[in-house]
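Expect chain and fold; thus:
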Amino acid sequence: MNTRGERNNNPGNVRHLAGVTWHGQRDEQTDDAFVQFVDPVFGIRAIVRVLRSYEREGLHTIQSAIDRWAPPNENNSQAYVLAVCEDCDIAPSDVVDFTDIMPQLVKAIIKHENGECIYSDGQINQGIALAA
């Protein structure tokens, strides 16, 4: 059975935000919480766009980014941080340019959100390229 993120073509489980319409978003949105995309590359693009917005806001560690992505009041953020750091081979408090680790970072988020990453490197790279 596909996960909610996979069914929505939103492997990062990007939430709806009032007034925001994403590139590649389905015309009909039947999930009240999470955005539904026409293709997973647009969901991957959304992950990248959100991460880049975090950097513009001054978040430059995996700890700060994941705490924002998956707030501790809703998630076991520490387990999420440690899983992403392990997949990216960096420490939670290391200052990092997300662009330098974007493919690994996107895959790690997808893996944590869905239990695995079913998307090819080509799909990941296409989503990253679309976020430019």
